C-alpha cells in the first residue's frame, strides 16, 4: 500500500509540475504581452504628442492667416474709400470731345458689405424723342441699379440719344443750357 501511495504521490507531483510549467509559460506570455503593451502605449503617446504639436502649429498658422486677411480687407476698404474721395466729378463742358467721365461698372453692384456682386446685364435705353416718360423711368432705374453718381447721369444719357432727341440736346448745349 505504501507503494501505491508513493506512486499516487509521484503522479500527483508530476501533475503539479506540469501545471506549474503551464502556469510559468502563461505567466511569461502575460509578462511579454504587458511589455509589448507598454511599448505600444509609449509609441501611441509619442504619436499623440506629435499630433498635438502639429495641430497647435496649424492653429497658429490659421490665426495668422485670419489676421492677415482682416488686415488686407481693411487695407482694401481704405483704398476704396481713398479712391472714392480722390475721384472728383468732372464738369460738363460744351465741347463733347473734351468731356471725360468715369463710366459706371456694368454688371456689378455692391452688397451691404461693399463687395461687388454679379447682376444680370441691363442695357441703358436709347431715346429718339418718343415716349419720354417711359425712357426717363427706365433710365432712372438703370442709374439706381448701377449706383451712378448724380453728376454722371446727364453725360451717360447723352450717349444714348438718337435722331431729333440728340439734335435737340446738342442745340441746347450750344446755347449754353
Amino acid at each position: 500500500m505504501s507503494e501505491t501511495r508513493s506512486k499516487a504521490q509521484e503522479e500527483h507531483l508530476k501533475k503539479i509540475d506540469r501545471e506549474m510549467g503551464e502556469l510559468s509559460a502563461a505567466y511569461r506570455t502575460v509578462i511579454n504581452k504587458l511589455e509589448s503593451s507598454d511599448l505600444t502605449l509609449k509609441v501611441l503617446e509619442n504619436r499623440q504628442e506629435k499630433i498635438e504639436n502639429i495641430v497647435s502649429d496649424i492653429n497658429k498658422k490659421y490665426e495668422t492667416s485670419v489676421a492677415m486677411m482682416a488686415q488686407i480687407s481693411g487695407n482694401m476698404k481704405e483704398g476704396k474709400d481713398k479712391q472714392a474721395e480722390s475721384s472728383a466729378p468732372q464738369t460738363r463742358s460744351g465741347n463733347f470731345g473734351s468731356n471725360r467721365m468715369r463710366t459706371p461698372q456694368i454688371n456689378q453692384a455692391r452688397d451691404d458689405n461693399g463687395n461687388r456682386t454679379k447682376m444680370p446685364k441691363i442695357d441703358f435705353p436709347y431715346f429718339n424723342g418718343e415716349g419720354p416718360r417711359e425712357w426717363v423711368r427706365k433710365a432712372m432705374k438703370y442709374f439706381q441699379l448701377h449706383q451712378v453718381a448724380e453728376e454722371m447721369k446727364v453725360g451717360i444719357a447723352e450717349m444714348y440719344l438718337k435722331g431729333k432727341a440728340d439734335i435737340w440736346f446738342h442745340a441746347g448745349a450750344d446755347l449754353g443750357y
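The first strand starts at residue 108 and ends at 110. The chain has two domains: 1-87, 94-174.
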